[in-house]
Design a protein that fits this description.
This protein is an alpha/beta fold. It has 15 helices and 19 strands. Strands 2-1-3-7-8-9 form a 6-stranded mixed β-sheet, with helices on both faces. Strands 4-5-6 form a 3-stranded antiparallel β-sheet. Strands 10-11 form a two-stranded antiparallel sheet. A hairpin with a 5-residue loop joins strand 12 and strand 13. InterPro entries: Caspase-like_dom_sf, Caspase-related_regulators, Pept_C14_caspase, Pept_C14_p20.
Length: 598
C-alpha cells in the first residue's frame, strides 16, 4: 500500500514537472525618464532603461516595451496598455528609472513634464506606485516591480507646502504588497537615496543585468547578490531592498535550462525531486517506498534519518501510552485497597514504564537532531551546487563579454587606428575643467586657464564630495569627463558672514528692526546699553584756576560819573570821585566833587 501511494506521488510529480516545462509567457515594461523639463536632466535613467530592456530581451521575454522620457499622459497610457498584456502572462515585470517622491507615506513616479510648484500638485502631475502594481496584478505566477527612483527630490527647494504638517520624505517609503507572489525591489532602502554613480549606468542597474538573468536562480537569492554588489560598489553607502514575499518554491526570472537526457544527465535531479515530495508527506510508508526505490546514495541516507525519526516518535508515543496505563493501574489498586504486594508490583511497573518513556523521549530528540542535521547538510550541499552553477555561468558570461569587448576594440582600432584624446593645450584643458568646476559649484574664480592653487583646491573639493581621486595638481581629460557627468551642484555653497545660501546663490540676511546678525549668522535682538557714570578729571580745571589767580589784576572802570560846568563824563580808569572837602596835592577844592587818580 505504501509503495502504491509513493508511486502515485511520483506520478503526480511527473505531471507537475511536465506542466512546468510548458513555456511561460513573460512580459516586461521598461521606463526611463532622463530629460526632465523643469529640473536638471538625469544622466543615467535612459541608459539604464536601454540596458535593462536588452537584458529582458536576451532572457527570452515574449514582450519587452522600452519607453523613454514619458510625460504624465504617456506614462498612464503605457501602464494601461501593459496591464492588458499582463492579463495573458504568467510573469509581469515593470522597471522604472527616474525621479520619485514620497508624500505622506505614499510613493509617486514623476513624469518629465511635472512642475510640482506645491505639494498638492503631486496628486495631479505624478503617478502613484500603486498604478504600476495594478498593471502587473493580472499576471498568474509572478508580479515584479523594480524601482531605480530613490534619488533626492529635485523639487524640494521650490515646492511650497499647502499644509505645514504634510510629510515629504527622503527617498521612497516602505511598502507592503497585498497581492500574493508580488515583489517590489528598491534601488535603496526606504528612507534613503540611491546613487547614479560615475559610470554610464547606475550601480543598481549594472548589478540587475548581471544577476537576474541567471537561469534557475531564485529571485530572492538573485536580489541578495544585487544587494551585495551595490553595497560593494558604493562603499557600503547604498543598500538595495526588496519588499513582498514569495512561496517556498524557487521562483526564477529566467527558467533553468532543461537537463539533456542521456549519460550526461544529472541522476540526482530525479532523486532530489522525489525526496522533496516525500519530505512534504513525511509518513513511514512514503519513506519506506523511497528506500525501496533508491537503496543507496546521499538522499538514501537522508531518508533513513527521516525514517529513524518517525520510528523514534512512534516508540515515544507507545512508551508514553504504557506509562499512562501503568499509572492508571497503580491508582486503581490504591483506590481498591488491594494487597500491599500488588500495589508495590504496580508501582514498580509504573516506574519502569515511566523510565522507558523518558528514554524514548530522549531517543526521539536524538533522532530529530540527527534528521535536522542531515536536512541542513542537504540544503548546504544544494546551495553550494547552485552557487557553483551560478559562478560557472557568471564566469562563462564574463569570458564571453570579455571576448566580445576585445573583438569590438579590435574592430574600432582597425577602423580608427589614430583615434586619441583631443589635442588641446594645457591651458585650454585647464580652462575647460575650470568651467565645469564652476558649473558644479566647486570653483568661484573665473575660468582663465591658469591652473593655480585655487583651481587645485577646487578639484580637491570635487574629489571630496564626488568620491573621486583625481590628481589635483593637473587638469586632465578624465577629470573633465567625470565633472561633466554630474548634472548639478556637487560642492556645497559657502556664503560670507551676513549671507545665506538660497539655491545656487548667496543672499543677504535681513533682520527686522531691533535685531542684528550674530557670529552664527542668525538674527539676535540688540541689547540696550545703559549710561556709565564717569568721574571728571579736575586737574585741568585746577591749573586754569591757578593761572587766573596768578595773573595781575587788570584795571577796571569804577563805573562812576563826574560832572562839572562842562557836563558829565565817566570817571577815567584807575580814578575815583571824592567829595569837595578832601584835599588833593595840598589844594582845597572849590566845593565840587573832584576826580582823584592813583
Amino acid at each position: 500500500m505504501g509503495a502504491l501511494r509513493f508511486f502515485g506521488l511520483i506520478v503526480l510529480a511527473g505531471w507537475l514537472g511536465c506542466g512546468s516545462a510548458h513555456a511561460e509567457k513573460r512580459v516586461a515594461l521598461v521606463m526611463g525618464n532622463s530629460a526632465y523639463k523643469n529640473v536638471a536632466k538625469l544622466a543615467n535613467p535612459a541608459n539604464d532603461a536601454a540596458l535593462v530592456g536588452g537584458m529582458f530581451r536576451k532572457a527570452g521575454f515574449d514582450t519587452v516595451d522600452v519607453k523613454l522620457d514619458l510625460n504624465v499622459a504617456e506614462m498612464r497610457r503605457a501602464l494601461r496598455d501593459f496591464g492588458g498584456k499582463a492579463r495573458e502572462a504568467d510573469v509581469a515585470v515593470v522597471y522604472y528609472a527616474g525621479h520619485g517622491i514620497e508624500l505622506d507615506g505614499t510613493n509617486y513616479l514623476i513624469p518629465t513634464d511635472a512642475t510640482l510648484e506645491t505639494d498638492s500638485d503631486v496628486l495631479d502631475e505624478t503617478l502613484p506606485l500603486d498604478r504600476a502594481l495594478f498593471a502587473v496584478e493580472p499576471a498568474k505566477q509572478l508580479r515584479l516591480v523594480i524601482l531605480d527612483a530613490c534619488r533626492d527630490n529635485p523639487f524640494a527647494k521650490t515646492m511650497k507646502r499647502t499644509v505645514a504638517s504634510r510629510a515629504i520624505g527622503r527617498g521612497l517609503a516602505k511598502v507592503e504588497p497585498t497581492s500574493p507572489n508580488t515583489m517590489i525591489a528598491f534601488a535603496a532602502k526606504a528612507g534613503s537615496t540611491a546613487s547614479d554613480g560615475d559610470a554610464r549606468n547606475s550601480p543598481f542597474a549594472a548589478a540587475l543585468v548581471e544577476r537576474l538573468p541567471m537561469p534557475g536562480l531564485d529571485l530572492r537569492k538573485a536580489f541578495g547578490f544585487v544587494r551585495d554588489d551595490v553595497l560593494k560598489n558604493t562603499g557600503y553607502k547604498q543598500e538595495p531592498y526588496v519588499y513582498g514575499s514569495l512561496g517556498g518554491d524557487d521562483v526564477a526570472l529566467v527558467p533553468a535550462k532543461p537537463v539533456a537526457a542521456g549519460p550526461q544527465a544529472n541522476p540526482d535531479s530525479e532523486i532530489r525531486r522525489d525526496y522533496e515530495l516525500a519530505l512534504q508527506l513525511g509518513t513511514r510508508d512514503v519513506w519506506t517506498a523511497f528506500l525501496n526505490r533508491y537503496p543507496s546514495g546521499f538522499y538514501t541516507d537522508l531518508a533513513k534519518a527521516q525514517l529513524n525519526r518517525i520510528a523514534a516518535e512512534d516508540a515515544r508515543a507507545m512508551a508514553a501510552e504504557k506509562a499512562r496505563q501503568a499509572e492508571d493501574e497503580k491508582a486503581r489498586l490504591a483506590s481498591d485497597h488491594a494487597k500491599k504486594a500488588q500495589q508495590e508490583k504496580a508501582a514498580a511497573a509504573a516506574k519502569a514504564a515511566e523510565d522507558a518513556r523518558i528514554a524514548a523521549e530522549k531517543a526521539k530528540q536524538i533522532e530529530e537532531a540527527k534528521a535536522a542535521a542531515a536536512e541542513q547538510r542537504r540544503k548546504d550541499a544544494e546551495a553550494a551546487a547552485a552557487k557553483a552553477t551560478a559562478d560557472k555561468q557568471a564566469a562563462e558570461k564574463q569570458a564571453t563579454e570579455k571576448q566580445q569587448a576585445t573583438d569590438t576594440a579590435q574592430k574600432v582600432a582597425a577602423v580608427a587606428p589614430t583615434s586619441s584624446q583631443p589635442s588641446l593645450s594645457p591651458q585650454e584643458t585647464a580652462k575647460l575643467v575650470q568651467s565645469e568646476l564652476r558649473r558644479v559649484g566647486c570653483l568661484a574664480n573665473a575660468a582663465d586657464g591658469d591652473w593655480n592653487a585655487s583651481s587645485q583646491r577646487s578639484l580637491t573639493l570635487f574629489n571630496k564630495y564626488a568620491g573621486t581621486k583625481f590628481d589635483a595638481k593637473l587638469a586632465s581629460f578624465d577629470a573633465l569627463d567625470a565633472i561633466k557627468a554630474k548634472p548639478g551642484r556637487v560642492c556645497p555653497l559657502v556664503c560670507d558672514h551676513g549671507f545665506k545660501a538660497d539655491g545656487d546663490t548667496c543672499t543677504k540676511i535681513a533682520c527686522r528692526t531691533g535685531y542684528r546678525v550674530n557670529d552664527d549668522n542668525e538674527c539676535e535682538k540688540v541689547q540696550d546699553k545703559k549710561p556709565v557714570a564717569t568721574r571728571e578729571d579736575a586737574k585741568p580745571r585746577d591749573n586754569e584756576r591757578k593761572k587766573s589767580e596768578a595773573a595781575p589784576a587788570k584795571p577796571q572802570a569804577a563805573g562812576q560819573l563826574i560832572c562839572n560846568s562842562a557836563g558829565c563824563r565817566p570817571v577815567k580808569p584807575g580814578c575815583r570821585v571824592v567829595p569837595y572837602q578832601q584835599f588833593k596835592h595840598g589844594t582845597v577844592s572849590n566845593g565840587q566833587p573832584q576826580e582823584e587818580c592813583n
